[in-house]
Amino acid sequence: MAQPPAGLRADARRNYERLLTEARSAFAEHGTDASLEDVARRAGLGIGTLYRHFPNRHALLSAVFEDAVSDLLARSRELLTDPEPCTALVTWLREIVTHAGEYRGLARALMSVSYDADSALARCSNPMREAGAALLARAQRAGTLRTDVSIGDLLQLTNAIALAAEETPDDPDLADRLLTLTLRGLKAVPG
Predict the structure, then answer these.
(1) Exposure of 39 by Cβ count < 10 A (0-12 exposed, 13-18 middle, 19+ buried)?
(2) Average pLDDT of 152-163?
(3) Rounded CA separation 22/175 (Å)
(4) Which residue ranges does the Swiss-Prot or TrEMBL entry mark as DNA-binding (predicted)?
(5) d(CA 41, CA 39)
(6) Nearest-CA neighbor of 129 among 73, 62, 81?
(7) Residues of 91-109 as b/e, b for ≥16 C-beta within 10 angstroms?
(8) Per-residue confidence at 45, pLDDT binned at 50, 70, 90?
(9) Is 22 exposed, middle or buried (0-12, 13-18, 19+ CB in 10 A)?
(10) Are 76 and 67 a contacting pair, CB within 8 Å?
(11) Tens digit of each residue's pLDDT (9 = 90 or more) over 60-100
């Protein structure tokens, strides 16, 4: 669980944790565009208290998704020892799509900050980019993926696939089909 900043008084720590709990619930129920005023109200706090802890929506999103990102980062480290580098990368990308699907709007938010190092969400996206780069480089060294593929492009494609799946809930296999199609286009062509 995302940790409150060090040095908070006990009441401020409780407020921080209540805000995160209610934000998770609101984002799961209404998507990442859920009303921040509603999040504060559900936590029994004022909007000013929310903004003291989280200066903007991206800061709140970052705190909410910190646990999931931590899990995805741990998974990427596990997959670095997989004997099939391309399969490891695909597995990790599928897990990203699954994670993004838990909160409507997450894929869009991550796409919007993919090249914004100053965004509070960069705290989530930058480590993900580094983890994915390691998996991608391994697949490229194995000769299974084209060398001109960048992790930035691949993560954008993955988030776009998650967004497409989110917009088409009546087709549960769409994300997997699109990811498979995308990765076929990224395969190294024997020369």
Answers:
(1) buried
(2) 89
(3) 29
(4) 35-54
(5) 5
(6) 73
(7) bbbbbbbebbbebbbbbbb
(8) very high
(9) buried
(10) no
(11) 988 888 877 888 999 999 999 999 999 999 999 999 988 88
User: What tokens were used for 161?
Assistant: 């696939």
Q: Give the other-Cβ count within 10 Å of 34's Cβ.
A: 22
Question: Whole-angstrom distance between the N-terminal and C-terminal Cα of the chain?
Answer: 48
Structure tokens at 7: 């040095």
The one-letter code for the residue type at 102 is E
For residues 135-158, average pLDDT: 93
Q: How much is the pLDDT for 31?
A: 84
Which tens digit of pLDDT belongs to each residue from 105-125?
Answer: 777 777 766 666 666 666 677
Residues in the chain: 191
**Long-range CB contact pairs, 124-127, < 8 A, 24+:** 124/61, 124/62, 124/65, 124/66, 124/69, 125/155, 127/69, 127/73
Residue 167: its pLDDT value, please?
87
